[in-house]
Amino acid sequence: MKRIFIDPAKCDGCKNCTIACMASHSDMTPRRGSLDELRQSVYALDLTDPETQSRNRIMSDGAGGYLPLFCRHCDIPDCAATCMSGALEKNMENGLVEYNADKCAACYMCVMNCRYGIPAITPDRKRIIKCDFCQHLEEGPACVRACPKKAIEVREV
């Protein structure tokens, strides 16, 4: 299984990971996009559109540093355990917590129970947004590839 690991000490708060995440999930990015195609879509990204949301975020740590917040695809995910409709499930084969929007009842129990505050409510309030590990991209998660400081990496666990 692969997981995203973060070294907050290396993060300089540039938010390249956040923008790359937005671009990789926008309608402009091909579903099997390469890194070059992702870079091109970043420049066309409409940041004023409420539908353009990132699945991660960078917050201040209160001491002059930054705290990158990413889905940890927990071994025992609180978000999936509290999902009454079964829209969130732990895939034991790939280790990811996967989301099925068709099953989502928009109760937001996952949002309230995630200890990291990762699932977010969409602007239309009909579903949630969470990390899908960029399974649609050949080269792996866009956030990892976009980090100039190498604060985010994928490791086999």
In short:
The chain is of the alpha+beta class. Helices cover 20% and strands 18% of the residues. Helix 1 crosses helix 2 (35-43).
Q: Provide the succession of SSEs.
A: EHHEEHEEHEEHE
Strand order of the largest sheet: 1-8
| Beta fraction | 15-25%
Question: Could you list the spans in which at least 5 consecutive residues all have pLDDT below 50?
Answer: none
Number of helices, where a helix is a run of at least 4 consecutive DSSP H or I residues: 5
Mean pLDDT reading = 89
- Label the structural class: alpha+beta
Largest sheet: 2 strands, antiparallel
Distance between the termini: 6 Å
Instruction: Give the quaternary arrangement of the chains.
Output: single chain
- Globular, elongated, flat, extended or rod-shaped: what is the shape? globular
Q: Could you tell me the number of beta strands? A: 8
Rg from Cα = 15 Å
Helix content: 10-25%
Describe the structure.
The protein has helices spanning 16-24, 35-43, 78-81, 109-113, 142-146, and strands at residues 2-6, 57-60, 66-69, 88-90, 97-99, 120-121, 128-129, 152-156. It is globular and about 40 Å long. The longest helix is centred in the N-terminal third of the chain and has 9 residues, at 16-24. The strands form 4 sheets. A two-stranded antiparallel sheet has the order 1-8. It is built from 5 helices and 8 strands, in the order βααββαββαββαβ. The N and C termini lie close together (6 Å). The mean pLDDT is 89. It is of the alpha+beta class and 157 residues long.
